[in-house]
Amino acid sequence: MADETRSGLDAVEEGPDVSDAGADAGSGSGSLAPEHPSVKALRARFGDAILRHEMGSPGQHVVFVDPARNFEILGWLRDDPEHDYKYLSDVTAVDYGGGRPLHVVYQLFSMTHHRILRVKCELPVTALEIDSVEPLWKTANWLEREVYDLFGIRFNGHPDLRRILMPENYAEGHPLRKDFPLRGRFSRAEQTRRALAQEVENFYIPLEMDIGREPQLPQGTETAPGGAGDDA
Amino acid sequence: MGLTDRTLPGGGTSARTGGLFGAGGPTFLTSKIDFLVNWGRRSSLWPMPFGTACCAIEMMASAGSDYDVSRFGMERFSFSPRQADVLICAGRVPYKLAPVLRRTWDQMPQPKWAISMGACASSGGVFDNYSMVQGIDTIIPVDVYIPGCPPRPEALIYGLMMIQEKIRQESLANHFDNRAEDPLAVARPRADDDEVRALTGPFGNSTRQNRVSGLVQTDRISRPEDRLP
Fold first, then answer.
1. Which of A9, A50, A72, B41 has the most CB within a 10 Å radius?
2. What are the sequence ranges of the domains in chain B?
3. Residue pair A74/A133 in contact by the 8 Å Cβ criterion
4. Rounded-to-integer distance, Cα A215 and Cα B135, Å
């Protein structure tokens, strides 16, 4: 859906000016983006799938990759011993508004080489789908659920893609999108009614429900007092 | 000898020979049963702490030795609603937590009272957004609102003493008028739609948020098919 709300929040609407930096740093050896060994290797191996490379904050390399090949590229970054990004710090997303593409952000850390890398995928607002990296890093399970909950990006292959922060019966959309009104879409009365209609038991997984249940005696325990009665 | 009765200031002796009012005085007191019941209730209020944010830190501080809320009979913070008399909701309550608060309240036995502690519990505070309950009085009946962000322990103790004062003025004769609760209202919002709208309407600077951002008004159902039946 196109963002039809023009507003006074121009600074937020415009977002970071990525086009210039991308053009300058596109060659990989531009002055804006110093060399990063992993980015160099990515270019050598994946070629066209590495779209551009730029600097975030100082020392923070950002590499934009083809969203259709994110699983392959991230899997290689994790498994190749030269890079060895065994730790996925964060999965998040950014909506810059105005109908611009949403960014899915993977924040990687290599403990063996003490190296950080931020991998981004741009998704058009009309096709918010990307492959899940949950098979690579188990921590992506809840992180991708959070991104799905708040931005509405679907992760293909995710084992348990449902809301994690908002209520299960939440029907107003995805709150961190720029086209989402601050107070939600429903009236406060409707929000209150829906909130109280939640099933509180659904907050817990079956294991936790078992812990809270009254302890059950194991089978056969009742026969023991009967045996004692024979002596008397 | 050393075993003689100690003389009391009023000139009488101990209860054995005439009680507090001296020899020949009355040996019993009369009172209203209201007074006795209310005295018992207000002197042993057990709070149910529902602490979700920084207000709960102040609530814990008021239970500590410096402020010592047990001077007033709140000896024991009851972490089970079944043994609690007064619910202290301290902190912000998101919509996802609203049914938990409602169920905690439903599980408390009558007579029971509720304190809304701090700006967020009372009105939503600065969190005038999609995820936050705009005042817990839309969900449960509240007896005392304590302002502050967060309120100091003195304020909480003052609020608890206001509850005590309220109990002192109650009468068993109109107990069921005061404390009646519709069993059908369990797990339902306390306020009807108009009241919720009046309670949760934006106020102050927050009303400018829609104008500045140009976002649509939120007080309507954008997708009527999402309404609950």
1. A50
2. 46-181
3. yes
4. 38
Q: What is the mean pLDDT of residues A112-137?
A: 92
Residue A89 to residues A54, A84, A92, A113, Cα–Cα distance (Å): 20, 14, 10, 15
Architecture of domain B46-181 in this structure:
3-Layer(aba) Sandwich (3.40)
What are the structural domains of chain A?
Answer: 13-166 (3.30.460.80)
User: Using a CB-CB distance cutoff of 8 angstroms, which residues of chain B are in contact with residue A186?
Assistant: 218, 221-222, 226
For the entire predicted model, the pTM comes to 0.73
CA pair distance A55, A35, nearest whole angstrom: 10
- Residues 6 or more apart whose Cβ sits within 8 Å of residue A155: A129, A130, A131, A132, A134, A144, A147, A148, A161
Q: Tell me the Cα Rg of chain B.
A: 24
List B residues 23-62 in contact with A (Cβ-Cβ < 8 A).
Answer: none
Closest CA to B120 of B188, B57, B52, B202: B52
**Whole-number Å distance between alpha carbons of A169 and A174:** 12
Taking a C-beta distance cutoff of 8 angstroms, is the pair A158, A143 a contact? Answer: no
- Predicted local distance difference test score (pLDDT) of residue A220: 63
Q: What is the pLDDT of residues A193-232, one digit of tens each?
A: 888 888 877 777 777 777 777 777 776 655 544 444 444 4
ipTM (interface predicted TM): 0.70
| CB-closest option in B133, B219, B223 to A187 | B219
Of A186, A196, A200, the CB nearest to B221: A186
10-residue averages of pLDDT along chain B (229 residues)? 49 51 66 83 90 91 89 86 92 91 88 91 87 89 90 92 88 71 68 76 50 46 47
**How many angstroms from the chain centroid is the CA of residue B99?**
18
* Bridge partners, A115 (sequence order): A110
Spatial separation of the C-alpha atoms in residues B47 and A105, rounded to whole Å? 46
Q: For tokens 């070629």, what's the residue?
A: A47
Residues B104 and B117: their CA atoms lie apart, in Å, by 16
Q: Does B103 touch chain A (CB under 8 A)?
A: yes
